[in-house]
Amino acid sequence: MKKEIDFQITGMTCAACAGRIEKGLNRLEGVEDASVNLALETSHIIYETEQLTPDDLKRKVQSLGYDVVMEQAEFDIEGMTCAACANRIEKKINRMDGVDHGSVNFALETLQVTYHPGQTSANDIKDAVQSIGYSLIEPDADQAEEGKKDHRQAAIEKQTARFLFSMILSLPLLWAMVSHFSFTSFIWLPEAFMNPWVQLALAAPVQFIVGWPFYVGAYKALRNKSANMDVLVALGTSAAFFYSLYESIQSAIRGTHEAALYYETSAVLITLIVLGKLMEARAKGRSSEAIQKLMGLQAKEAVIERDGKQMTVPISDVKVNDLVFVKPGEKVPVDGEIIEGTTAIDESMITGESLPVDKTAGDMVIGATINKNGFIKIKATKVGKETALSQIIRVVEQAQGSKAPIQRLADQISGIFVPIVVGIAVLTFLIWFFFVDPGNVTSALETFIAVIVIACPCALGLATPTSIMAGSGRAAESGILFKGGEHLEVTQSLDTVVLDKTGTVTKGEPSLTDVLAYANWTEDTLLQLAGSAEQQSEHPLARAITDGMKERGLEAVEVEAFQADPGHGIEAKAAGHKLLIGTRKLLQKHHIQYEQIEASVTTLEEQGKTAMLVAIDGEVAGIVAVADTIKSSSPQAIARLKEQGIHVVMMTGDNKLTAEAIAKQAGIDHVIAEVLPEEKAAHIAALQKQGKKVAMVGDGINDAPALATANIGMAVGTGTDVAMEAADITLMTGDLHAIADALEFSKKTMRNIKQNLFWALAYNCIGIPIAAFGFLAPWLAGAAMAFSSVSVVLNALRLQRLKPIREGVAE
Questions:
Q1: Which parts of the chain span the membrane according to its record (predicted)?
Q2: Which one, of 638, 614, 393, 327, lies nearest residue 501 by Cα?
Q3: Which residues contact 443 (CB under 8 A, 6 or more apart)?
């Protein structure tokens, strides 16, 4: 059985680290695929549960020299009566997927659990314990949440402390170095700063305390037969430090303070690299703001009714079928169905629609939306990870953690980069020592260190994932959910968009417009029979006929039999009459003549109405017509797609005349009509065979195969869960402008990635030769290397300023 798991990984310093973890995991027997995202510091693994356990994967990551982030939780236990209860709870917890260790203290009635957040949660642990008859309570949950530090924030604080300590010790060394230049001879310098042993005392803590993680990282990398940024830093700074130490000893033997010292080079390099890492960590923290904002939308508490009493509980304690009370101005805590009350709900944070939506009993509401003006009581239908907002957050996390195909190039380059750089540095040293400045170790060493230090694969490794994080996160805030980096990349290459008609181009809420009766039938009798039969169908057109019957005050009659003929209509028996309601093909199939009403049908269809023929007891009896008006934004949105060079196609099961009338109103030139649900995917495939890159946009269950077949499937978020599951992109709003917005987000994100890759490569292509020719001091090389990573991340963050096109693009 296949299973997916996400690990939060600590200890990575550059793209080579990510590549090493990927290779190590992918070599494991039972791992189908493993990918590591350096920017998010996560790993997504698909593995066979028969061959591997999460602990096996965790141990593999640790054996490679890294670690997996685990979370701890503490609970009070209710219901224990003896030590056997404690043992039972312990066994239950320790058997759970994702739990590293669980320990029960019977005397204190507490449970401490260390668990993997990618597999389980505190809620899952609560449910597991509850299933065996006990209850868990989180003590002071709010205070615990406030006091719990995010591991990324903790890393920033640690880097800040390292930087300040390193900077204080490096400044005197930098002061001594600057005073050596002729143009700075006026600067006063304390004599002590020139003493080799004073310089050693200042440089040693920087080299071996602040710089110790580089040595550890280099050792782990080399032990696993690979090389990363740590190898370059440890090699470059060690060369400077130990050569200076050698010179210090030689000067002591000679009895003089004069020596070629490079303590400032090693210390300043480490300080600059730590500063770069600090700035990078802060910038990467900003790049995950989209998820933080989405999480911030969630309500923290809910007022529920249990055992006839109202109580306020944390949102995590709400269960399915709980009755939840929502006052005006409050956030809806969970997804649910209104069972009492009428209100207007602001759904803008989910759908992007600015106008509140009227809701009454029977309507569904979404968690995190805002109840504007009425008191409502809802029954919880989805809680925890199942709510719409949680699913959106999960999609965004998956997209930000995924890799775009363009990243493969960067990964391949990073994998061979460090050995090549070390080779170039050694060759540079030899050329300088034997040919450029024969016998001069100092000048050869300077160029060696400069080449080693300026060449860092970090910028290359960060180029793609930071852009994907920023681009997909900003798109999500605008109601456009990309399910992965590969979809973000493919979208920019689309040249054809196929639109489903009902609910996509049109409002999807057709209403009855005409009832024409023939032979001896009256309009009311015809509509009463048709409306009664259509009550059995879920099709929007069927609901329009039924609603039209009720609006005319007609009572439904008994329906004795019903059968749907997908794409054609229905067959039914009502009040003793055999009914056929649907297309011409349906009547042809049953050999019923309808030529006498053909002209009326054509007239209605030319008006953009869907005309359904009605036959009763084997003879044509009349026509019922419904109309579905197009969305007000559709013509403008389709015009925008055409401006972007997109060929727009409308595909529908409606007859050709009706479809063409709707298409004309919307500004669509190409129509594929009278398509059965099972034929939609075939039409998409036919367009692809013509060499077109096709996006399918739909909202219904019958669109799912076509959404899966298209190069990119876009599901309108107002549609069904099946369509959204099959799609690559979910448009949370029903506005077709979101399609053009998705294309624009994709194009600008890919452009940003290419900019990052260009600059990351350009830094090295330009910097390494400059350093090799001796034009770059080692400390300047270190500054340039640190700046390259930071500049790549800052460029990616520009994507967070993007806005949907209809609001005016800003970069």
A1: 163-188, 200-219, 231-249, 261-279, 413-435, 447-464, 756-773
A2: 638
A3: 432, 436, 437, 774
User: What percent of the chain is predicted at pLDDT more than 90?
Assistant: 28
Q: Does residue 6 or residue 279 have the better pLDDT? A: 6
Q: 511-627: which CATH architecture?
A: 3-Layer(aba) Sandwich (3.40)
pTM (predicted TM-score): 0.64
500 is catalytic: yes
Confidence of residue 145 (pLDDT cuts 50, 70, 90): very low
| Poorest-pLDDT segment among 41-55, 593-607, 782-796 | 782-796
Whether the pLDDT of residue 299 is over 70: the answer is: yes
The C-alpha atoms of residue 505 and residue 527 are separated, in whole angstroms, by: 28
| CA distance readout (Å), 635 to 170, 176, 640 | 64, 70, 9
Given CATH 3.30.70.100, say whether it is the number of domain 2-68. Answer: yes
Helix H segments across 727-736?
none
Phi, psi of 259 (to 5 degrees): -160, 155
3-state helix, strand, coil in the chain (%, to 5): 50, 20, 25
Domain 479-506+630-742 has CATH 3.40.50.1000: yes
DSSP symbol at 646 = P
Strand partners, 480: 731
pLDDT in tens, 563-620: 988 778 899 999 899 999 999 989 999 999 999 999 999 999 888 888 999 999 999 9
Q: Where are the alpha helices (DSSP H) in 33-150?
A: 54-63, 83-94, 122-130, 141-147
Task: Give tens-digit pLDDT for 237-264.
Answer: 888 788 889 888 988 887 776 666 778 8
Catalytic-labelled residue, pool 500, 628, 654, 699: 500
- 306 beta partners: 309
Task: For 320-382, give the CATH class.
Answer: mainly beta
Given a cut of 80, whether residue 207 has pLDDT beyond it is yes
The secondary structure of 185-224 as a DSSP string is: TTS---GGGG-HHHHHHHHHHIIIIISHHHHHHHHHHHHT
CATH code matching the domain that covers 71-115+118-147, chosen among 3.30.70.100, 3.30.1330.10, 1.25.40.10, 3.40.140.10: 3.30.70.100
